[in-house]
Amino acid sequence: MEALKTKLKQQIIEQLNLEDFSVADIKDDMPLFGEGLGLDSIDALELIVLLENNYNIKLTNPEEGKSVFNSVNSMAEYIVKNRP
Amino acid sequence: MNYITTYCHIALNNCYVNGKLTHSFNSNSIDDFTKEFYKSLILEYPKFHKMDRLAKTAFLGTEVLKKECPEILNYKDDEIAILFSNNNSSALTDVNFQTSYQNGGVPSPSLFVYTLPNILIGEIAIRNKWYGENMFTVAEHFDAEYFVNYCNVLLHKNAAAALCGWLTIDDNKIEAFLFFVTKKDFNELNLPLESKQLIELYTKN
Amino acid sequence: MITYIGLENIISPLGITAEENFNQIKQGNTSINYHRGIGFGHENIFLSKLKNTPSFYELLSQCLQAVIKGTEDELILSKDTIVIISTTKADIKENITTPIIAAIKKLTKEFQLQQQPIVISNACISGVLAMNTANNFIKAGIYKNAFVIGADVVSDFVLYGFQSLYAISDKPCQPFDKNRTGISLGEGAGGVFMSSDKNVFKSTCFEFVEGTSSNDANHISGPSRTGEGLVRTVNNSLALAQLKPSAIDFISAHGTGTSFNDEMEAIAFSRLGMNTIPLNSLKGYFGHTLGAAGLIETAICLQSLRNNLLIKTLGFEEDGASEKINITTQNITTEVTTILKTASGFGGCNASAIIRKLK
């Protein structure tokens, strides 16, 4: 689980071009949207792409993303549960 | 009479303002260069890293021009027209977006939103809260006559100044020429807005 | 100085003249159809596609040719004439690295144009912006005549892109409706002729009063929540035209069918005090034709002026925005004098134009 979270953080930084953040800056329970990482609506869609390209998980409804992309914790849990 | 108040050229690793070399770097790629350039300007603007190369270059050029001619910041928020032009639209990002879905991947939304050349105008408008006229045109070559004519038209109509630019970027080459047109010659460069003059500045450096 | 506008043409699956298209939509016919498996991931998609899949260049030259027929033959060859082209992705299907310039060089040669055409690629406001630019050049006396042509074709590139934004409607688009879920793409071309001389039009022409553009300065892909840019451009166009909002008889809005865009427009027209003026979106008939949209929709506006007939908003049934605006639910026969055309697009751009009957 820890390895998955670290990898996920790297992928988020790379995919979303978060130049000012390092893996250590992103806490497991930090909100990804709003106050925390400050991601926006396009980033949310890009996270859906990240799940599909890297974990083969297809989110069909972007609304579903809201709870999944709450934090690195919630993303990792979702991946473990839904990985084919 | 309208004036070219200030202008800049950006090529890989170099930026010249009003004809003088002002920023120089030793990067090996366009992406490293724009990153180094951005860092050197000490701007707190994380959105910069999300832009494509076209928008990054236009953004950097605009920041440099603002520094050289701070009077620009005194205009009202809708008095500055933004006119950009190039010969291949957003081709570089277009290819990247196409690649995102061609090799078994999923189309990337963050690349798709940059597959319109006028997005760079939007980025500049957002950064500076400029609500004025916008237009992106595509031409085979730098069209000095168009810029002169259209700046004169807009400055006579509902704009007081214009930010203009020509920029072409491919995998390893960057060529950008940005200039501010105003009614008052703030920097006293004495460069009246005329086709011959503009072509001369464009071909400099 | 007055700028005149007329000789409108539309090429769409509904017809190859403005009259044919107007007669089709008057009867409530749409060109949006169900296309099995053409989307990314073999999704089924509703969109408007021409039968013979013409290239960008073919659309452009066919439309220009049609507009030329309405003027004196030698006008296109004059140094006082400019061709202004509006497109977003042009020939992206065939030529991704130079999608625009190759086609424009061919056009310049084929029509023996004396001036380099101006190509405007400014997202979904390109068409309205192209007419505004023509008007600006004509009023400044730089050119006397302008052929303004917009064209875009449907491509995997654009379709997949809008799919990636979850912005494609799962049924034919429903502008301003409560149950709208996104856009339906379309393809086609639209063209008009503009001039400082009304005698060079072979049919009735109108006055292009004024047009402006304004940026939201807010977000590159989402419209402003307050409709700031749209409010500003409409206010600026009205001010330059020396008209009050009440002088507008009808609004041809952008109305894409996405949740955010239509909400933004409703807020903007409400802020402008224009919420009782009849308003429509034509996207339910043609789909969203991107760079051609402003010109196709303006061509329909000119037909509305000629026929004193306002077209209903196909796909709209129930109010679905936080502000109430007067969306047409029926075709309305009424005397129409002054029309406002608006458009909004990615990059936060907004444009507006005012057209009226000659006194």
Gyration radius of chain A (Cα, Å) is 12 Å
Give the overall average pLDDT of chain A: 91
Quote the distance from N terminus to C terminus of chain A: 16 Å
Spans where pLDDT lies below 50 across 5 or more residues of chain A: none
Instruction: Tell me what portion of residues of chain C adopts beta-strand conformation.
Output: 15-25%
Query: Which CATH class of the largest domain in chain C applies here?
Result: Alpha Beta
Instruction: Give the overall shape of chain A, derived from the CA principal axes.
Output: globular
Protein chains sharing the most extensive interface: B-C, 51 and 53 residues
Number of domains of chain A: 1
Just name the CATH architecture of chain A: Orthogonal Bundle
Annotation, overall tally of beta strands of chain A = 0
The CATH superfamily of the largest domain in chain C appears as Thiolase/Chalcone synthase
State the order of secondary-structure elements of chain C, H for helix, E for strand. EHEEHEHEHEHEEEHEHEHHEEEE
Please state the average pLDDT score of chain C: 97
Per CATH, what is the topology of the largest domain in chain C? Peroxisomal Thiolase, Chain A, domain 1
Question: How many DSSP E strands of chain C?
Answer: 15
Structural class, from secondary structure content of chain C?
Answer: alpha/beta
Could you please describe the fold and organization of this structure?
- The complex is a heterotrimer of chains A (84), B (205) and C (359).
- With 84 residues, chain A is mainly α.
- Chain A has a single domain (1-83), classed as ACP-like (Non-ribosomal Peptide Synthetase Peptidyl Carrier Protein, Chain A), CATH 1.10.1200.10.
- Chain A is built from four helices and no strands.
- Chain A has helices spanning 2-15, 41-55, 62-68, 72-82.
- The model of chain A has no long low-confidence stretch (mean pLDDT 91).
- The mean pLDDT of chain B is 96.
- Chain B has one domain: Thiolase/Chalcone synthase (Peroxisomal Thiolase, Chain A, domain 1), CATH 3.40.47.10.
- In chain B, strands 3-2-1-7-6-4-5 form a seven-stranded mixed sheet, sandwiched between helices.
- Chain B has helices at 30-40, 53-68, 91-102, 109-112, 119-128, 144-156, 195-203, and strands at residues 3-11, 14-17, 20-24, 80-86, 134-138, 161-169, 174-182.
- Chain B is α/β, with parallel strands linked by helices and 205 residues long.
- By secondary structure, chain C is of the alpha/beta class.
- Chain C folds into two domains: 3-174 and 182-200, Peroxisomal Thiolase, Chain A, domain 1 (3-Layer(aba) Sandwich); 209-356, Thiolase/Chalcone synthase (Peroxisomal Thiolase, Chain A, domain 1).
- Chain C contains nine helices and 15 strands.
- A ten-stranded mixed sheet of chain C has the order 5-4-6-8-1-9-15-14-10-11.
- In chain C, strand 10 (250-252), helix 7 (259-271) and strand 11 form a beta-alpha-beta unit.
- In chain C, helix 1 (18-26) crosses helix 9.
- The model of chain C has no long low-confidence stretch (mean pLDDT 97).
- Classes of the chains: A mainly alpha (84), B alpha/beta (205), C alpha/beta (359).
- Chains in contact: A-B, A-C, B-C.
- Strand 5 (134-138) of chain B pairs antiparallel with strand 5 of chain C, so a sheet runs across the interface.
